[in-house]
Specification:
The structure is a homodimer of 275-residue chains.
Chain A lengths: L2 E4 L12 H5 L2 E9 L2 E2 L2 H14 L7 H12 L5 E8 L16 E7 L7 H4 L2 E10 L14 H7 L7 E8 L4 E4 L3 E6 L2 E5 L9 H12 L4 E4 L3 H6 L2 E6 L3 E8 L2 E2 L7 H11 L4
Parallel strand pairs in A: 6-7, 6-13, 10-11
Antiparallel strand pairs in A: 1-5, 2-3, 2-4, 4-5, 7-8, 9-10, 9-12, 12-13, 13-14
Chain lengths: 275, 275
């Protein structure tokens, strides 16, 4: 990490009794800073706060958190920020403390340096063996317990494979290890339902909203492997990668945004919003 | 916490990029120190190491870890130890670093001060609303992602209720929020199967082994609510509480170890082993 602030201060570390460490009792977000601009900050804050509230963690005040971020971006105009919010220290075992003091941890690392072709020619993906477990109480929330993602990501070493797709126990396609997923079908989009598992990223929300504004159909549905394989196009999204078309999945090959002029037009607008 | 060592040193905290904090990428154990004796240390180490290996984390050397523990027990003859082992810092996102440096965190807190009657007259328990998710890749492992336990423990505030029992999505009884569970049926024991979810605690192993040595039947099976309600007796175990008989579950009442003389005899031997 290039720089880290814990509760606004540059300190050596996080207390060992922080419940984020001891129990995964917290949430996080990853966002891009480009030319000193914190991309989509108000929307990221809204999702962070919503995830906190879902776990009954008091969200940090937006001004306080943005103050931390500005301390960092004053020095680092281009970076990937990770914002972690935990329930803080204390409590007896799993029981939450009667009064908890939310802890905020803001870290900056370098923006990832992916091959340029990944956002133009598209990426190769694989299907992971690990199946996500269904937990409606935590589905969609970007909480700190991400061992499933770690295990799934450990399944391959080939640097030519950009991402692994995850299925739930019933074989429905849910997401990538670090991104959300959209299928193009005719002139509409569909993205997996995340009410049982998965992380609902901000870029997924932005794509859904933008598509609907552009008059594209965009639905949220359970998606099985067969439907994925039948899609006209497939693309991956998150806050750092933006949009990656999927070029290949095993023997399957997709062509990039040739079959859907409406989607192409929408994507141009999404990737190059008016200033 | 009374005292904490991170990689053997008393430092202010754990680095903010520790994967235990960022992804729940680690495991832990809780054990009792009484009169300077670290109860069941070799067995706790064996389970800790097995959990590490299941996640492909290099376990710390037992001598190194026990050195940390001795530094603490030299000062604190009575305490509850928490040993946390994480994959350390680093890696790019969920991908594990090519070479990882396992981090060990050993903390001492006071031994919990439960009402004396809980281990003699028994405890009141409830059934939690939250259902555990099934994840065979992580089942049994005491990993750091314990938000399900946190959410379940937050369901009640009544201090007279000692524990909440957890079901899986199919309604099978799995464990308590912080302990394992045994049913007494006639003159034998049965404990829930943990191949889909739950934490396999050391005391559970010890009970199974001891019961079999004493000629009691002890099986591991899926257990539904009806079978729980039909049990002659029910008891909870973990390394800090030892054995708690369950006295009541809602309107259900159990009498403590009256119906099963063989179990009573075994329990006496288990709780008062020959010196």
């Amino acid at each position: 990490m290039l720089m880290t602030l814990v509760d606004g201060r540059q300190v050596a570390g996080v207390p060992a009794d922080d419940r984020g460490l001891t129990y995964g009792d917290g949430v996080f977000r990853t966002l891009a800073v480009r030319n000193g601009h914190v991309c989509w900050w108000p929307r990221h804050y809204a999702k962070l706060a919503a995830d906190c509230i879902a776990l009954d963690i008091r969200p940090p005040e937006p001004e306080t958190l943005f103050g931390d971020i500005q301390t960092i971006t004053a020095r680092l105009a281009h970076c990937a920020l990770r914002i972690t919010v935990t329930r803080g220290s204390g409590g007896r075992g799993y029981a939450r403390p009667a009064v908890s003091h939310t802890r905020r941890i803001v870290s900056a690392g370098p923006l990832p340096d992916y091959p340029a072709g990944w956002s133009t020619a598209g990426v190769a993906v694989r299907i992971c063996d690990l199946r996500l477990s269904e937990q409606p109480a935590l589905a969609g929330i970007k909480h700190l317990g991400r061992l499933e993602n770690v295990l799934a990501r450990a399944e391959w070493n080939d640097p030519a494979i950009a991402e692994g797709l995850l299925q739930d126990s019933a074989g429905r396609i849910v997401e990538g290890t670090r991104c959300n997923l959209f299928l193009v079908e005719k002139d509409g989009l569909v993205t997996p339902d995340l009410s049982l598992c998965g992380v609902a990223g901000l870029t997924r929300d932005l794509v859904i909203e933008s598509a609907i504004r552009h008059g594209l159909r965009c639905s949220v549905e359970p998606i099985d492997l067969k439907r994925l394989e039948s899609a006209t196009e497939v693309f991956l999204v998150n806050s750092l990668i933006g949009v990656w078309p999927v070029a290949t999945l095993g023997h399957l090959k997709w062509r990039k945004f040739v079959a859907a002029p409406l989607v192409r037009k929408w994507l141009d607008a999404f990737e190059n919003p008016p200033a």
